[in-house]
Amino acid sequence: MKLGELTFSGVASRPELLSPSTRAYLSDTTAEAWVANIDPAYHDGIAFCDHYNIDPTIGGNCIILQASRADKKWYAACLVPTGKRIDVNGFVRKYLKARRVSLAPKDDALKLTGMEFGSINVIGLPKEWPIFIDARLAAKTFVVMGSGLVSSKMVVPGYLLAKLPNSELIEALGK
C-alpha cells in the first residue's frame, strides 16, 4: 500500500516495526494493518505529514491522560486527528467524571503502554482503559498513526478503531 511517499507492508511481514503490545493485539485479530519505516526525526504528526506528503486528515495522534478523583487514579487514551487539540479540562474531565485530568507523566505512559514516546497508539493499550476516538477518524478508510515505535508508522482501517476494547466514538473530540 502506498500513501504519500511511503510504501506500507502488511504487519505480518514486518512485525518488528510494531511495539510488542500493538503486535500482540493485531496478531489476535483478523484486521488488516500495514506498517512502514520512517525517519524518527519526523515522527511528530504535522512534521510527518509534511515530510512524507501524507494527508493530515487521515492522521491520528494518541494522547494518554491521567485522571483522578479522591484516592483513585486511572488512565485513558484519546485519538484525535493530526493537528487537533483536546479539551482535557472541560469535556474529557467531565466525561471521565474526574476531579482532575492531565497528560499522563511521560514515564508512566511509556511504562504502562510499552510504547515509545512520540509513537503511542490506541491499539494494544491496557483493556481497562477508556479509549476515546474522534468519530471522524473511525469514518476514514485508512488512518495513519504511531506504531508504538518512533522508527515506523502504522495504517489501520478506520472501522478497527471503533472495535477496540473500551473504545467510544466521540463527535469532534479534537478541536
Protein model, in words:
There is one protein chain. The model has no long low-confidence stretch (mean pLDDT 91). The chain has helices spanning 20-27, 45-52, 88-96, 106-113, 135-138, 158-162, and strands at residues 2-3, 6-7, 9-10, 34-37, 60-69, 72-81, 100-103, 131-134, 142-146, 152-157, 167-170. A five-stranded mixed beta sheet has the order 7-5-6-8-11. It has a four-stranded antiparallel beta sheet with strand order 3-4-10-9. It has a two-stranded antiparallel sheet with strand order 1-2. The chain is an alpha+beta fold. The chain has one domain: YbaK protein (Alpha-Beta Complex), CATH 3.90.960.
Fourth-level CATH superfamily: YbaK/aminoacyl-tRNA synthetase-associated domain
Number of domains: 1
Mean of residue pLDDT? 91
Main beta sheet: strand number and arrangement? 5 strands, mixed
Spatial gap, N to C terminus: 30 Å
Please count the helical segments.
Answer: 6
CATH architecture: Alpha-Beta Complex
Structural class: alpha+beta
Strand content: 25-35%
As a percent range, the share of helical residues equals 10-25%
CATH topology: YbaK protein
* CATH class type: Alpha Beta
- Unreliable residue runs: none
Shape: globular
Query: Radius of gyration from the CA trace?
Result: 15 Å
Give the H and E element order.
EEEHEHEEHEHEHEEHE
How would you write the strand order of the largest sheet? 7-5-6-8-11
